[in-house]
Amino acid sequence: MDQASLLQYLITGLTVGATYGLTALGFTIIFNTTGIINFAQGEFVMLGGMMSVFFMRALGLPEPLAIVLAVAGTTLIGALVERLAIRPVRDCPAINLVIITIGVSILIRGAAMLLWGKDTFALPAFSGAAPVAFFGAALMPQTLWVLAISLLILAGLKMFFSRSIHGKAMLACSFDPKAAALVGIGVDRMVLLSFMISALVGAVGGAILAPITLTSFDVGVMLGLKGFAACILGGLGNPFGAAAGGLILGVLESLGAGLISSAYKDALAFVILLALLFVRPSGLFGQKDGKRV
Amino acid sequence: MSVGYRRDMRWLGGFLVVLLLAPPLLGNNYYLTVLTMCCLNAMIAVGLSLLVGHAGQISLGHAGFYGLGAYTTAALSTTLGVPVGLSMLAGVGATSGVAALVGLPALKLKGHYLAMATLGFGVILSILFNETVGVTGGPSGFTGIPRLSLFGVEFSSDLSVYYFILALLGLVIWVAFNILHSRVGRALRALHTSEKAAQAMGIDIARYKLFIFVVSAAFAGLAGVLYAHYLTFIAPASFGFLFSVQLIVMVVLGGMTSVPGTIAGAFFLTVLPEFLRAFENVEILLFGAILVLCMMYLPDGLAGGSSRLWRLVWRKMFVRAEKDPMEGGGNG
Amino acid sequence: MAEPLLRCTDVGVRFGGLQALAGVDLSALPGEITAVIGPNGAGKTTLINAISGMVQAQRGTFRLGADDITFAPAHERSRLGLVRTFQNLEIFSNMTVLENVMTGCHARLRVPAWASLLRTRASRAMEKTIRDEALEVLDFVGLFELAKYQAKDLPFGKQRLLELARALGARPRLLLLDEPAAGLNMSETQVLADLILAVREHFRLGIVLVEHDMDLVMRISDQVMVLCFGQVISRGTPAQVQRDPEVIAAYLGDDED
Ligand SMILES: Nc1ncnc2c1ncn2[C@@H]1O[C@H](COP(=O)(O)OP(=O)(O)OP(=O)(O)O)[C@@H](O)[C@H]1O
Ligand SMILES: [Mg+2]
After folding, report:
1. ipTM of the complex
2. What pTM does this model have?
3. Which residue has the CA at smallest separation from atom 16 of ligand 1?
4. Which residue among B113, B163, B247, B268 has its CA within the 20 to 30 Å range from the CA of A235?
5. Which residues lie below 8 Å from residue A53, measured CB to CB, with a gap of 6+?
6. Cβ contacts of A293 on chain C, cutoff 8 Å
7. Which residues pair with C84 in a beta bridge?
8. Which residues of chain B have pLDDT under 70?
9. From CA B69, how far away is CA C44, in angstroms rounded?
10. CB within 6 Å of ligand 1 — which residues?
11. CA–CA distances in Å: residue C238 to residues C2, C189, C243
């Protein structure tokens, strides 16, 4: 294998991995405030891509505006999901809430199919599709967009959690909801916020990936799966781990596709994930749980 | 408890009688197909409820075991010409064996990590079903599987296959009840609530987790082999990640720990899409909405909902004061 | 003097940078109540954990009777007759009171798993035996009337008794009790003290008792060992220990320098 194609696989892997990472971040944010895995996370990603396409095609809006609207719309849907389906039953066991998010994901997917059909759509690349040569590999401009925007989001979230009042409050909720409530942090508000941020992050991921991988009403299933895998790989609950997990998963997949066969790329990624879990039962950067007697 | 066991046996008897009489009453062949599918899904769900509801171990890969059973018997009987009875046995055996191999490392994981490991395993299997075209026929499916036959006697009518499947479902439910009303069942529930306390009582928790994982996989494998010889055609789409999720939903919707509830959940989720087919485009939409609403308004599942209703009726009809022997205070 | 039932030598447990136990020796004689006392965080629960195999000790050996159990997993130790209760109740809340105690009999009264699966005659007979024995134990601790109740619905004091009953279901040779009186009021503690003495008589077993309630300890134990910051600072009869200046200092929080 020559270096140029290795580099090519690496670039492809990092690009796709960045969106896995964003999806994983979404999972992590909701998990940290509520302790549940939101199965509708992949649908947020799908909505980001599909709504961008819709706003461009049907309403003829320029691409940046369409994307902003799509992200805003998805964020709103995230808020609605929390208000309508999660908040009324927040005290139920976690497994019930998880099943509700499964139902929500089916609902969203069904609505998307009804509205936009079963076709596959492409979003135009943000700044042309002419590849740039990069040490013998072809670098698409969109790749740079994906990586840059992902980094931006990651930095923004880090700022949010370490600087802003709301961010700190959200962290407090995740450590101890009862104590947070006692010191006057509105847990309800924080859960709502976490759904909105997750939806936003997911939608951005969907919009920036759509020019590369195409999009359709059912891309959310696989993206959600990969995002969840990335979370677990990085160690559930750790945002940095989630992002890193996404990149690792993306690169593994891309190398698997290049070196072995594209048919087995997902299988390879999961085989490695399983092997890793068997060696490190709480992910790469996760903490061992130390329950005392 | 033996009182509980007798009650469960009565329930099982009633259930079997109803399903025995159902086909002539329904009449139509299409209904029979749906009913057969209900029985197969119930078979998997009952096993899964032992694993998830009682032992507290999640699996998002049971569709994979279902598929493994189906493809094993299909390949053996169709491609290699092994007699159907034998190939079905091999299918269940292979599924159990694979479950033991996977479960051994996987069950050391907890919670979401176990969910991921089983999910990953399911995805790997589903990719194999799709890609090993030479063995499985790939995405377009495996055709020409022989119909169900035992000792050279073919089950020529769909009705006879249905009764055979029903009998096996009865057997599965009976075994499930036996497990629940025995020391094995107590061990499972014990390790669900407190692994430490279970160990302190001398329960080898790793062994029991593996045991129930293999048993539930074997039930899924059994459903798989029956499915293959019933439809005589299988395709990977039936054994994917989404079906694994659906199986978990059956268990939770049924009420986690109740066998009748789980069966109700399986029947409900199998019939619902058929019923919604009339609504064509909005079918999926409705399915999602109904699922969400059920979960929101029946937090303890179909079993909990119906027993609450029943208690309400019972109280209304026969109110009487009961003496409470739980006197004596306590702090805590 | 009789052979010790349990003999732990030079036990050391470390959690990261914290030395929770260092060089602890403990012997428990059959038919005796050996109390382990010490201030909060002294390492008493950790000692119970190490003995019962729930925490792997980095140093030391453990023998139960003639068996070396140093490397035996927790459930194996329980089967050999070393059964414990928990400071923070760990009852099986998803079972009835009776089922909790029946679970206690798990390792002692057994049939192969397939026999349970098929509900063979042997398995039915065994279930009946388990049930009868569990009821007997419940009667012994005074919970017979509550057998059919969900364990989680019991008041706290009764849940403590239930933990004891569950452990007794296993018919241990040595019973490890981790603060059985914690959270009980005076009269409940009184009942518990008599019960522990009765248990020793009736089941003829050794008991290692971790407890904060000094009156209880002084009243019922034969030997007392005092732990402080993971080390044994005193041992002897209750009267001897009570007079030991080091023990008094440790309890009053007196720091010499
Ligand atoms: N699993 C663990 N991980 C890390 N540190 C632990 C663990 N278990 C106990 N410790 C620490 O070891 C020390 C001894 O704890 P231990 O629970 O044995 O005390 P104790 O004597 O039982 O106290 P108490 O009277 O409060 O029950 C404490 O400092 C405790 O924080
Ligand atoms: Mg303690």
Report:
1. 0.92
2. 0.92
3. C43
4. B247
5. A66, A116, A121, A122, A123, A210, A215
6. 45, 49, 54-55, 86-88, 90
7. C176
8. 1-2, 317-332
9. 52
10. A 290, 292; C 15, 18, 20, 38, 40-46, 87
11. 20, 18, 9
